[in-house]
User: Which sequence fits this backbone?
């Protein structure tokens, strides 16, 4: 075995002076040396001969032997064999199947309710309803270690069906197999879920952790277009590699529930969902302006342009197309409201809230007026009528606005703006709602609104008739109709300054924009230009144009001009807005203004309304690789255009005016207290009824894509596309003529298929439901089974999916909820966003203005004026800058020429940025850069360091790290630990290989501490008797090798997981049995002791780490848990012996993180102690094929030692800068000074290390009976 002495590895039992192996060299060689002190393995003296008796050369005196011979951590063999056993036995699948059978047996409603509340079986006796006695949550303070008695051999009680108390559905965002393999960024996510799933299983949960493949979509389609290869072949090959990678890393999944979105049995039900949406009027087709990319030959939605980084650099143009939409806006209010029901990060909730952008307000209807009529006729009105609002009344010319005017005048202390005209004794107040009267009472205006004014109406009416006659006489009837019929809807919120605003804004896409601009050619050109801009450009455009029309505001007796703008997008195109002004302090005037708003809102002259930033979901794409729509249309054409809208009222598409957008839904009749069932009682599962008079014929599902033809991507070969000169606006599928047209023989009608496909989000919006019942051929899923497993208890994925995948999934879920297929309003109970792993994607090279290279490490000092450039790549202090040696310049002339050539190649003709008026910054390609010790340098110029730009790992950026290379060199357990140790798992981190050697060293030391060669262990006679013969602890026995059932299990693993053949079965068996004949056993430092015999201090330390590691897992602080493992190891390695119970606790705690090495420790434990502990089914042999419950997978999470507090003592934590170092006992007899002195002596080495770094102890904080903290800075 090996120990570390002064930084060197030393073989135990020998003189340390004889052989020293530096750790780096040691690991690099992967070898060990034997025959130390002149003796060979048999203890005989060496005589210069080799094992065969032949003479050796003096140069080869060091003998190379196998790693296992000298007790090295042989991770390759260890990991391989356990991966085979775990996957062949389908551990999660067995649990899932068994648990579902138990649930099905429970027909009693009482038991079902208890199960849903995580309570069933908790008070039952052993063997009933799946429990062995009274149990509770594990790993909590105050629990004893009695359950360890049933746990020694992987057993959890007498009844094997009784160890799971409840379900736990954990899910990763399933990967998209467009690239050839997973990178370490993916591995982080899978590592998190694998740790939590193993932790939950050890806490007696039935864990459901499925895996699948999001195969349809744009990335694979683009790769197919580039390579001109069938995307099915690409997906199949990549999935095979993904499975192999996941298996090598020790991840456990429910492989029997695997799904693939491009398989018929899956996308059949995606098409079924869309059919139901269409039948329930939630899917429709309309012609509108969309974002078109010639590069992709496809429509890109606004959501994708904003959120998909890979699409942001595409050239986008606006074209008008007939496209499918889903009415996600119908669910906008519920999507916001139900966020309160789920445990999601506030960041994600806020992102969804802002994305939906719900606003509550009111809409009033107003008449618009062309300003030219005001100019021509206003003078006559003023002369003959002193009340101009009589004819130009903008809202309804009703008594309510007269009341508002009176209220406004009263509030502000003004005189009446103008006289009112009212019929005598007209009752104003009685027709108003009670809430309006209450508001009036608040501001004291009801009494002043009594109708006691007398006005000579005959004179006014006479004048009015004369004026109207004059107007009618001078204008045609069409102008008068325009004047009377031009009404618009204005949206108001409390934030809008209705009483002070001087502008109203209208969208360039408003349906009546042509009436409002009255044929102004200049404005028409502006509108046509703005409509074709993409949404991001429009949102940034702050230019406004006067429309030539106004709206009259009777409240302030002013005309308000209407301005045309581009930032009001399509989803709000039907309404006008006031310019929002930021509210200042809540002054008395603002309060009264709010009351004015409340008066209008509570009257019958306004309508309550919710508007959203969210748009209906554009659901059409023009690619090949995606789910086809199951719709066909009669192949009738008029002027080359189809003239119907799907899901909407039939319209003629030759009219360029778009339909009224469905986002602007009136919510006047909504009741906030209504249940969702009442709000959506019209949504139901409907049968397909195809009639000859229907415009849309719904095809039998699944509708499959036509056979791939690589010529479809040839731009010049477009003979399959009708009525087009190029591919703009036409789907790839339109080239498959034989697939497009079908004739119905029953009614003799020819139909044309829908040529667009669904977006890549279609299949991923409901996949978590299909996981539960993936093989159901007759239904989308089993309702009873799905409702039991829902909602997903933990969903792990990146925050970049907050407003696309997560929002769309919630929308699909709510629709299926309305269909009464599921009982839960939300799909994901808890969401955890792991941070991104960043890696260098590009680099900055710095030069001065003379193009002399500057190393990045010196740039900061140059900008601060601390240094100046001396020569290429070097700098010197300012006060030494003039002291250069002429001879040195001559010596470096030749090297300068070489550098000049490199500089020319790197920066010649490239653009740059200037920083601090001192240096230039060039963006260079990674092909010129080499990495050394986590720093980046120019190739062939090792003195020139460049600045890395860290970005998210992706194939398109070329900065991915292949985990296979790391696993091959360090092992899966090492990579899992290292990737967690980089930092908090919920934060973005820079990828670095630095430190992985330390992680590997930790695992190697751990293995050397727990495992020894048999001859190195001085076992007692009793221990030797307990160690069974080799046949007793075979990983797979002879009977299982010969049994066909077990061969089929291995063959299934070989074929499905590692893409092997039948020949691989024997190879797998050899791997399993290869190490069965070795002499590796538990170290004799591990002693079996009863709980009462274990020292109290060891129990306290063990309890501390159980508590800390358990809390770390429960709170997703996995990086901190890794630190505690290393501290735990540092504590126990100094003990004179390690109690067996502590050893078992350690490996159980470690198992979720490093399953392979933990399972190896567990197996060595079973070999030594299984004979003495005779537990049912494990008495004779370990064979994991006969008895898979011997695996550590079935063990329970460790509980705390029960410590008797007979002595009044306290364990004080000794810390340095609040970092725990050791414990010290206090029996309440020592003074404070003595305790500090003892603590100082105990951690003297740690303090000395800090002092050697130039630090000093500035304070010692003593919290009595709790901690002593040495503050060293």
Assistant:
């Amino acid at each position: 075995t090996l120990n570390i002495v002064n930084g060197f590895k030393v073989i135990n039992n020998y003189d340390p002076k004889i052989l020293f192996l530096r750790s780096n060299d040691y690991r690099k060689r992967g070898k060990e040396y034997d025959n130390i002190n002149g003796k060979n393995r048999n203890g005989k003296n060496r005589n210069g001969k080799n094992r065969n008796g032949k003479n050796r050369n003096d140069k080869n005196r060091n003998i190379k032997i196998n790693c296992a011979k000298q007790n090295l951590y042989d991770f390759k063999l260890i990991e391989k064999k356990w991966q085979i056993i775990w996957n062949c036995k389908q551990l999660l699948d067995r649990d899932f199947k068994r648990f579902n059978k138990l649930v099905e047996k429970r027909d009693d409603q009482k038991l079902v309710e208890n199960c849903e509340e995580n309570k069933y079986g908790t008070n039952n006796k052993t063997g009933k309803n799946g429990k062995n006695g009274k149990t509770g949550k594990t790993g909590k303070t105050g629990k004893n270690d009695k359950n360890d008695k049933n746990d020694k051999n992987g057993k959890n009680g007498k009844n094997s069906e009784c160890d799971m108390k409840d379900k736990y559905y954990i899910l990763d965002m399933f990967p998209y197999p467009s690239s050839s393999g997973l990178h370490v960024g993916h591995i982080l996510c899978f590592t998190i879920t694998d740790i939590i799933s193993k932790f939950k299983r050890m806490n007696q949960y039935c864990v459901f952790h499925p895996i699948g493949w999001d195969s349809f979509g744009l990335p694979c389609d683009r790769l197919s277009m580039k390579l001109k290869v069938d995307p099915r072949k690409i997906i199949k090959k990549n999935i095979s590699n993904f499975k192999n990678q996941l298996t090598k890393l020790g991840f456990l999944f429910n492989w029997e529930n695997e799904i693939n979105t491009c398989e018929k049995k899956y996308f059949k039900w995606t098409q079924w969902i869309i059919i139901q949406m269409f039948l329930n009027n939630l899917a429709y087709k309309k012609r509108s302006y969309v974002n078109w990319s010639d590069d992709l030959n496809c429509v890109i939605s606004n959501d994708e342009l904003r959120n998909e980084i890979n699409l942001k650099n595409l050239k986008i143009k606006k074209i008008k197309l007939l496209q499918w939409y889903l009415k996600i806006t119908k669910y906008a209010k519920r999507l916001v409201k139900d966020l309160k029901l789920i445990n999601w990060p506030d960041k994600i909730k806020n992102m969804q809230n802002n994305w939906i952008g719900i606003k509550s307000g009111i809409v009033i209807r107003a008449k618009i007026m062309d300003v030219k009529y005001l100019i021509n006729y206003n003078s006559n009105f003023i002369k003959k009528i002193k009340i101009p609002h009589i004819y130009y009344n903008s809202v309804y010319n009703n008594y309510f606005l007269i009341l508002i005017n009176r209220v406004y005048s009263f509030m502000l202390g003004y005189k009446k703006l103008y006289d009112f005209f009212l019929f005598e004794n007209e009752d104003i107040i009685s027709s108003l709602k009670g809430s309006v009267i209450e508001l009036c009472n608040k501001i004291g205006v009801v009494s002043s609104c009594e109708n006691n004014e007398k006005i000579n109406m005959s004179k006014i009416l006479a004048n009015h008739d004369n004026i109207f006659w004059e107007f009618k006489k001078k204008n045609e009837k069409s102008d008068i109709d325009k004047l009377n019929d031009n009404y618009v809807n204005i949206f108001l919120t409390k934030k809008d300054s209705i009483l002070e605003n001087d502008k109203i804004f209208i969208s360039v896409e408003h349906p009546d924009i042509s009436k409002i601009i009255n044929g102004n050619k200049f404005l028409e050109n502006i509108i046509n230009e703005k409509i074709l801009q993409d949404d991001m450009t429009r949102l940034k455009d702050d230019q406004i144009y006067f429309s030539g029309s106004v709206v009259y505001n009777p409240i302030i007796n002013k005309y308000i001009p209407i301005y045309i703008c581009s930032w009001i997008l399509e989803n709000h195109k039907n309404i006008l807005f006031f310019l929002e002004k930021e509210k200042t302090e809540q002054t008395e005037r603002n309060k009264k203004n709010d009351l004015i708003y409340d008066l209008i809102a509570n009257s019958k002259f306004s309508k309550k309304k919710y508007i959203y930033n969210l748009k209906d979901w554009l659901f059409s794409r023009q690619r090949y690789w995606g789910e086809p729509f199951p719709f066909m249309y009669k192949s009738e054409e008029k002027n080359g255009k189809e003239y119907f809208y799907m899901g909407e009222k039939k319209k003629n598409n030759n009219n360029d005016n778009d339909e009224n957008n469905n986002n602007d839904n009136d919510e006047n009749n909504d009741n906030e207290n209504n249940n969702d069932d009442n709000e959506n009682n019209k949504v139901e599962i409907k049968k397909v009824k195809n009639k000859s008079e229907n415009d849309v014929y719904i095809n039998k599902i699944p509708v499959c894509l036509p056979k791939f033809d690589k010529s479809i991507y040839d731009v010049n070969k477009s003979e399959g596309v009708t009525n087009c000169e190029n591919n703009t606006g036409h789907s790839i599928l339109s080239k498959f003529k034989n697939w497009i047209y079908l004739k119905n023989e029953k009614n003799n009608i020819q139909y044309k298929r829908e040529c667009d496909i669904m977006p890549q989000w279609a299949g991923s919006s409901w996949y978590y439901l299909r996981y539960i019942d993936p093989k159901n051929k007759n239904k989308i899923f089993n309702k009873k089974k799905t409702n039991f497993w829902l909602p997903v208890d933990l969903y792990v994925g990146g925050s970049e999916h907050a407003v696309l995948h997560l929002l769309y999934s919630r929308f699909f879920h709510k629709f299926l909820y309305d269909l009464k297929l599921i009982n839960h309003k939300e799909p994901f109970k808890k969401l955890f966003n792991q941070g991104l792993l960043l890696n260098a994607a590009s680099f900055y090279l710095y030069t001065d203005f003379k193009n002399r290279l500057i190393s990045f490490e010196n740039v900061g000092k140059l900008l601060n004026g601390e240094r100046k450039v001396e020569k290429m790549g070097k700098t010197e202090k300012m006060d030494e800058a003039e002291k250069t040696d002429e001879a040195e310049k001559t010596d470096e002339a030749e090297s300068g020429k070489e550098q000049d050539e490199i500089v020319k190649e790197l920066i010649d003709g490239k653009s740059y940025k200037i920083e601090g008026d001192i240096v230039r910054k060039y963006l260079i390609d990674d092909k010129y850069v080499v990495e050394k010790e986590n720093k980046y340098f120019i190739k062939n110029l090792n003195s020139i360091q460049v600045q890395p730009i860290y970005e998210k790992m992706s194939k398109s950026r070329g900065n991915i790290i292949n985990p296979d290379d790391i696993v091959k060199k360090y092992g899966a357990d090492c990579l899992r630990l290292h990737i967690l140790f980089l930092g908090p798992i919920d934060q973005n981190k820079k990828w670095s290989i630095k430190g992985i050697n330390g992680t590997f060293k930790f695992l190697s030391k751990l293995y050397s501490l727990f495992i020894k060669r048999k001859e190195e262990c001085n076992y007692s006679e009793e221990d030797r008797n307990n160690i069974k013969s080799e046949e007793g602890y075979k990983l797979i026995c002879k009977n299982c090798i010969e049994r066909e059932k077990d061969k089929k299990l291995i063959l299934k693993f070989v074929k499905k997981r590692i893409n092997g053949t039948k020949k691989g079965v024997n190879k797998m068996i050899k791997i399993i049995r290869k190490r069965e004949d070795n002499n590796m056993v538990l170290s004799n430092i591990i002693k079996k002791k009863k709980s009462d015999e274990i020292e109290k201090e060891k129990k306290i330390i063990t309890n501390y780490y159980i508590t800390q590691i358990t809390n770390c897992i429960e709170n997703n602080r996995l990086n901190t848990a890794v630190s505690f493992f290393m501290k735990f190891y540092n504590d126990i390695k100094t003990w004179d012996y390690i109690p067996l119970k502590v050893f078992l606790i350690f490996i159980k705690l470690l198992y979720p993180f490093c399953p392979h090495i933990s399972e190896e420790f567990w197996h060595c434990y079973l070999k030594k102690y299984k004979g003495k502990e005779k537990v049912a089914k494990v008495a004779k042999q370990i064979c994991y094929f006969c008895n898979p419950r011997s695996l550590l997978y079935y063990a329970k999470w460790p509980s705390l030692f029960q410590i008797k507090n007979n002595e009044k003592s306290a364990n004080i934590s000794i810390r340095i800068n609040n970092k725990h170092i050791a414990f010290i006992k206090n029996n309440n007899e020592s003074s404070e000074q003595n305790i500090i002195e003892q603590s100082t002596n105990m951690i003297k080495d740690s303090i000395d290390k800090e002092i050697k770094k130039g630090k000093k102890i500035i304070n010692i904080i003593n919290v009595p009976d709790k901690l002593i903290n040495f503050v060293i800075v």
User: Anything to note?
Assistant: Residues 295 and 314 are 7 Å apart (CA to CA). The chain has a mean pLDDT of 73. Residues 1210-1272 form a domain with the Ubiquitin-like (UB roll) fold (CATH 3.10.20.590). The chain has six domains: 1-65, 83-144+162-271+763-832, 275-331+343-355+616-757, 359-611, 837-952, 1210-1272.
